[in-house]
Specification:
This protein has eight helices and no strands. By secondary structure, the protein is mostly helical. It starts with 11 loop residues before the first helix and ends in a 5-residue tail after the last helix.
């Protein structure tokens, strides 16, 4: 009887699969340093052209990314044998998009959205941390959706108070 662990499954499929590409934020989740932050940056870049479209199209795109994100993150979690593997960053993309939804884009709002979303994703104010307990990809994506909602609400407040140009 051997005490050896079974070989770790290959991650090569992630780069061959459209769902793997989405789940990892087009490979950002494979970053050895701060994959969540890398995924958030991908979300920011991908939102830029989306911001030119009507809000209804943006909302539909956010919903699609969330739903496909749940599916793809579930597959990655199952493959990795972990509840919320760090390489699944589609949740950061969705959360960043929600942070920027209905926000006038400027350098200040983009920087504030990025920082607020990362802070909310790390701190996970109620009920975000509880949402992580949802099964599969739902738990992976839902807490970042909540973090994005919190970041968006704070940004809306800052804009209304005139604290951001």
């Amino acid at each position: 009887m051997s005490n050896e662990l079974p070989p770790r499954p290959s991650r090569a499929w992630l780069l061959r699969s459209p769902l793997g590409w989405l789940a990892t934020g087009f490979g950002a989740g494979l970053s050895p340093i701060a994959p969540g932050t890398a995924g958030t940056l991908v979300g920011l870049v991908l939102f830029w052209p989306l911001a030119l479209l009507p809000h209804g199209v943006q909302a539909a795109a956010i919903i699609v990314v969330c739903l496909v994100g749940v599916w793809s993150a579930s597959l990655v979690a199952r493959h990795e044998g972990r509840k919320d593997p760090g390489l699944a960053v589609v949740d950061e993309i969705a959360g960043m998009w929600i942070s920027l939804f209905w926000i006038p884009l400027s350098l200040w709002t983009i920087v504030a959205a990025f920082l607020l979303f990362r802070a909310m994703d790390v701190v996970k104010p109620f009920p975000a941390r509880r949402l992580e307990d949802l099964p599969g990809g739902w738990g992976i994506v839902a807490d970042d959706v909540m973090a994005g909602i919190y970041a968006n609400l704070v940004l809306q407040l800052f804009l209304r108070l005139g604290w951001l140009p």
